[in-house]
Amino acid sequence: MVAFLPVAGAGKVAGARVHPVVVFNACDSFVRRAEAQDRVIGTLLGSVGVDGVVDVRNCYAVPHNEQNDTVYVDVEFHRAMIELHQKVNPSEKIVGWYSTGDGVVPTDALIHEFYSHECQNPVHVTLDVGFNDRAKLMRAWTGSSIAIGAQAKSAADAAGDKAAAAAAIAEKKETAPGEDGDDAAATGPGDDASASAAKPPAAIHFQEINLTNVFDEAERVGVARLCAPSSDASTSDDVSGADGLQKTVAKLSGMLDDAAKHVAAVCDGKAPADAEIGRHLSDALSAVPRLTKEQFEKLFGDSVADVLLTRYLANITKMQLMLAEKLQTTSLLV
């Protein structure tokens, strides 16, 4: 017999939205792990929406050690990191934890129990860094407490004893309300039963929930650059700023041509009108500043001058650091 016991807020998580920085941080911590570790775990930071969807925006790795079905978590490191994150971004709260690997393992119940004291309804995100199943590289789970066998029966019996004790107390109060000693003796078994029923659960049942990858505008640009093929000239390190600007302008010009063709087709009745596309085009046009050709050339020239000056100062700083390193190495040899 298996009885499901309710957890605080269980069943209220509708899904999870994970941002790219979470995936990058988790993969980076896995690459930098110790040789003896098979996986890494970490804390997820974000917020919970009114619709029950958890928005995971950031994370950090937490040192841990697993030996003989026992997990040791560096709680002091976890506390220090969350305190630092709260100073930088107070809106990001603990929403769960992540681990690398294909699905859940038995020791995940212990870690999930720890995070259930850190936040309500923690979400567990797993990342398959071994690429065993490309359709399930990242999955999200929620945990619920279960009692198995005799524990479920004892919990039910305890609840029944507590109800019977409450009924006996009510009856005694009607017949002899002044007998306080009998009331105390009657409430004793009920209190013990409730204490035994409140013991930690025997296990954690993980239920998979919907997970979606979301991108902000800035994140989308970075991910697109990382996902670009290696043959793309924009991904090489030796590309100058002028070449990159030329490629960006060419891409923007192509997008403007496509938008103009779509508008012309709608005006000619060759394509159906879409109100959402019209709103996006209106927002894009309203965001463009109204500048004359001379004003644009002056603004562009000032921006290029600032970029060149910044690059010049960066190169000078780099040369100074290299020179200092050479001098320090020479002094050590002497």
Automatic annotation (TrEMBL):
Pfam family, one: JAB
The keyword Cytoplasm is annotated on this UniProt entry: yes
Region (Disordered): 170-199
Biological processes, Gene Ontology terms: formation of cytoplasmic translation initiation complex
Chief location of this protein within or outside the cell: cytoplasm
Domain of life where this protein originates: Eukaryota
Gene Ontology, cellular component aspect: eukaryotic 43S preinitiation complex; eukaryotic 48S preinitiation complex; eukaryotic translation initiation factor 3 complex, eIF3m
Ranges annotated as biased composition (Low complexity): 184-199
Database matches in InterPro entries: eIF3f (IPR027531), EIF3F/CSN6-like_C (IPR024969), JAMM/MPN+_dom (IPR000555), MPN (IPR037518)
Statement: the UniProt record of this protein carries the keyword Protein biosynthesis: yes
Annotated MPN domain residues: 16-147
Record-level Gene Ontology MF annotations: metallopeptidase activity; translation initiation factor activity; translation initiation factor binding
Keyword terms: Cytoplasm, Initiation factor, Protein biosynthesis
Described function: Component of the eukaryotic translation initiation factor 3 (eIF-3) complex, which is involved in protein synthesis of a specialized repertoire of mRNAs and, together with other initiation factors, stimulates binding of mRNA and methionyl-tRNAi to the 40S ribosome. The eIF-3 complex specifically targets and initiates translation of a subset of mRNAs involved in cell proliferation.
Complex formation: Component of the eukaryotic translation initiation factor 3 (eIF-3) complex.
Similarity comment: family membership: Belongs to the eIF-3 subunit F family.
Protein name as catalogued: Eukaryotic translation initiation factor 3 subunit F
Originating species: Micromonas pusilla (strain CCMP1545)
Lineage, top ranks: Eukaryota, Viridiplantae, Chlorophyta, Mamiellophyceae, Mamiellales
